[in-house]
TrEMBL record:
<dbReference type="InterPro" id="IPR051505">
    <property type="entry name" value="C-type_lectin_domain"/>
</dbReference>
<dbReference type="InterPro" id="IPR026823">
    <property type="entry name" value="cEGF"/>
</dbReference>
<dbReference type="InterPro" id="IPR009030">
    <property type="entry name" value="Growth_fac_rcpt_cys_sf"/>
</dbReference>
<keyword id="KW-0732">Signal</keyword>
<dbReference type="InterPro" id="IPR016187">
    <property type="entry name" value="CTDL_fold"/>
</dbReference>
<dbReference type="InterPro" id="IPR018097">
    <property type="entry name" value="EGF_Ca-bd_CS"/>
</dbReference>
<dbReference type="GO" id="GO:0030246">
    <property type="term" value="F:carbohydrate binding"/>
</dbReference>
<feature type="domain" description="EGF-like">
    <location>
        <begin position="287"/>
        <end position="325"/>
    </location>
</feature>
<feature type="domain" description="EGF-like">
    <location>
        <begin position="326"/>
        <end position="362"/>
    </location>
</feature>
<dbReference type="GO" id="GO:0005509">
    <property type="term" value="F:calcium ion binding"/>
</dbReference>
<dbReference type="InterPro" id="IPR000152">
    <property type="entry name" value="EGF-type_Asp/Asn_hydroxyl_site"/>
</dbReference>
<protein>
    <submittedName>
        <fullName>Complement component C1q receptor-like</fullName>
    </submittedName>
</protein>
<feature type="signal peptide">
    <location>
        <begin position="1"/>
        <end position="20"/>
    </location>
</feature>
<dbReference type="GO" id="GO:0016020">
    <property type="term" value="C:membrane"/>
</dbReference>
<feature type="domain" description="C-type lectin">
    <location>
        <begin position="28"/>
        <end position="167"/>
    </location>
</feature>
<feature type="domain" description="EGF-like">
    <location>
        <begin position="402"/>
        <end position="430"/>
    </location>
</feature>
<keyword id="KW-0597">Phosphoprotein</keyword>
Amino acid sequence: MVLLLLLLQSFLWRLNRVDLQTVKTVCTGSACYTSHLQNKNTTFQGAQKYCKDNGGNLVTLKTNEEASEIQSVLSRITEGHLDHNFEMWIGLKLEKGHCVLTDEVLKGYTWVSGAVDSQYSNWQQEPQGTCTEERCVAMHYTLHPSQPNRLEWIDRSCRDETGYVCKFNFKGMCKVLRLAGPGEVLYTTPFFTNQISKDNAFLSQIPHGTLATVSCKDSSHAQAVCKEMNGFFGWTSHGPFCDSDKQGCKFENGGCNHKCTDNVNGGVRCECKEGYSLAEDKATCIQIDHCQRSPCEFRCEQTFESFRCICPEGFQLTENQRNCSDIDECSSNPCDHLCINKHGNFSCICRNGFEMVDGRCQDINECDTSQCSQGCINMQGSFSCYCITGFHLSEDKRSCNDIDECVNSPCEERCVNSQGSYKCSCKEHY
């Protein structure tokens, strides 16, 4: 019975451990990825459970930037593989009772990580229409020269089996520990218990919470933890590690991030380039946050070795390159008629007789509103009224009054005036 329990315990221990021969790890940016492309007999539920149990989720691709990052990660993971085609679960699932929505980017599917606001998708073809079945998404990745790195999404049954990739996000990362002499660094990360090193993983950053164990060739040992300190992420033990008077700066730059100087009494001294400061480990160089002291009137943007100030729309930097002044947009005559400059913008106004249409001043046809009692002539920005024969324009320039032609005695005997005209008549018996 005891032997049976020991065998079962050994089996479970092996089951829970990660085989570094089949799993590859990449740590870059603010995340780590573990690939399980050789584990082709894993269902979607099994893949997500493994990722979740270790503090992560199946990988997400919500934006073009994330897709490019995954493509870069996969190119490292698959380096040296004889197989040119890979398929893996990603964290996209259609829950039972939810319908495929063809007009949406994700077609009604949701990310199991809870992520929202996806602007990216790359469906190989329209997913199978259903409202009653759970459906999951696998991604196809190829190294074939004719179809490189297409990352196409394939709608599949969640019970199908294939490989998968996990993603683990962290609030910060530390730089890889540098050694000043011969030795090895093994990292125990928060996402599984196996120790990894630069020999069996691609490590450009080390996640927050990682324990680093340093073993030097001279049999000395040290440990350090990646943690947040004073707003930065760094190692708790100060380097340089495996420091050797004989090696100095000759071995991997003495463990220094930037400049290494050999001390007269042995050891090395690390210094940083302009725009950087030395971290507490005395080896890592951290970019100085020039924007922290708010040098700009509006917005500050960190650059490689300094900073630059940015003004809102309608403003420009003054000579000191820190303050913002209003741009007089009217100086470039952007309007058809009148321009009024304002704080941060401007507005265009049309003269009387014109109206704004799609940003341009167009003539108003006043004759359409029938302001004249008889005839109307439209002009650019104005109009004029006229009267027909027998009438004259009144003082209001709009109304027409009858002309009394009889005033000028146009008739030999009697004259009878009428609206717009007149007539002559003779006395009786004539």
